Amino acid sequence: MSQEADTFGPDPREAEMLLRNVAPTDIDAYVAMRCDPVMMAELGGPQPREGIDPKVAKDVADAEADVSWIKMIVLDETRPREVAGTVTLWRNHHGDDFFSEIGWMVLPGHQGRGIGKRAVAALLADARADGRWGLVHAFPGVTNAPSNGICRSLGFELLGVEEIEFAGRLFTSNHWVVDTGSG
Ligand SMILES: CC(C)(COP(=O)(O)OP(=O)(O)OC[C@H]1O[C@@H](n2cnc3c(N)ncnc32)[C@H](O)[C@@H]1OP(=O)(O)O)[C@@H](O)C(=O)NCCC(=O)NCCS
User: Given the CA of residue 173, which atom of ligand 1 is nearest to it?
Assistant: First the structure.
């Protein structure tokens, strides 16, 4: 093994990636992602800590019921509780208009290494194989360069700019869509 591989481990672009369902033990990962002002800068600001336990409980229930796909990104299968981020596919609605939406987060120590893009590509591949999700929409903030990069490079089509709500806050986002078939 080379000195470089020894020191830094396998290149994350080549390594296996596990997407596993969210679990009750993921509260710390949710806090690190959702209560951090830098992580939430493009998502309307940090969320209150007191909302996290009920949010994890609801997400665990929705994932177990297969209502939503709420996946934690794991880079080392032997340490499944160590989370690099999350990617989620769910049914959202504007009034009576229901649609599939995908969202993602990668923790700061893992950003800029292709992990977000690979996780989104993997979940979209699963969605295509599953066939229930149809057109999948994404709404990254207009200034969120890596998230818009993920959409652009994974074949999403840009429909325009919209005011959208995330966790009760409004912000200006690009509206992207990709077709995963059926739906
Ligand atoms: C957005 C986020 C998920 C990106 O994850 P990531 O693993 O760092 O992104 P990747 O390394 O897979 O890069 C994705 C694309 O963006 C590009 N990119 C990455 N960082 C970038 C940056 N700072 N500026 C411009 N482009 C960037 C990459 O080159 C890649 O595009 P390419 O395939 O054309 O080369 C991560 O930064 C994050 O969680 N941010 C905070 C929360 C958030 O904004 N969530 C998304 C809400 S929609």
Answer: 48
Q: How far apart are the C-alpha atoms of 60 and 52, rounded to whole Å?
A: 12
Residues with CB under 6 A from ligand 1: 39, 42-43, 103-106, 111-117, 140, 144-147, 149-150, 153
Domains and CATH numbers, the chain: 3-179 (3.40.630.30)
Q: Give this prediction's pTM.
A: 0.91
The Cα 153–Cα 4 span in angstroms is: 29
66-125 pLDDT, tens digit per residue, is 999 999 999 999 999 999 999 999 999 888 899 999 999 999 999 999 999 999 999 999
Distance from the alpha carbon of residue 96 to the mean position of ligand 1, in angstroms? 32
Q: Which residues pair with 165 in a beta bridge?
A: 170
